Amino acid sequence: MKMFHPFCLILSKYCTIFTFKTLAIVLLLFPIHSSLLAAGQDSSHSFLPSIVVKVSLSTQTMKVYQNGVATFEWPVSTARPGKSTPKGIWTAKWLSRNHKSSRYNNAPMPYSIFYDGNFAVHGTDQVHHLGSPASAGCIRLHPDNASVLFSLVEAAGLKNTVISVLN
Question: Which option is the CATH number for 51-166: 3.20.20.150, 2.40.440.10, 3.40.50.410, 3.40.309.10?
C-alpha cells in the first residue's frame, strides 16, 4: 500500500466523492501510471493483478485483461430471473477442471474458476443461451473460452486473478 500513498493524496485533495470501496475498485481495476509513484518506487513490483475479469450483467459480456491490456471479450450468461449473480470484486479462490454441480443434478461445469462460495465462472453446454441471463447464478462461458480463461488463471495464479461483476 505504501506505493499508492501519492495517488491517494492526489485523490483526497481534489475529489471528496470517493468512498473507500470506490477507491479500492479503482486501485484494483486500473493500472497505476509510473508518474504517480514516489521517486524510487517500481511499478513492476505492485500487487496489481495480472488477470482481471470484468463481467457486465447489463450487457451479458466478459472482458479479460492481461497486465492491464484487454485481450478477450466474450458473451456470458448470468442469473436468470428469480436467481442472482452476486455483484462485487473477488480474487479467484479455487479451480476445478472437470467440476460437476453438487446442487444441480451433476450438471457439468467444465473449467470452473470459483470466486465467491459456490459461484464460479465456468463452461456450459447451453451455448445457445450465451448473451442472455440463463444460469442459476454462476457466470457461464462457451467451453472453448472457459478453457482459455482457465489456462490464463492457472498460469497467473489465483492470487493474481480478480473477478469483477458489475451492473
Answer: 2.40.440.10
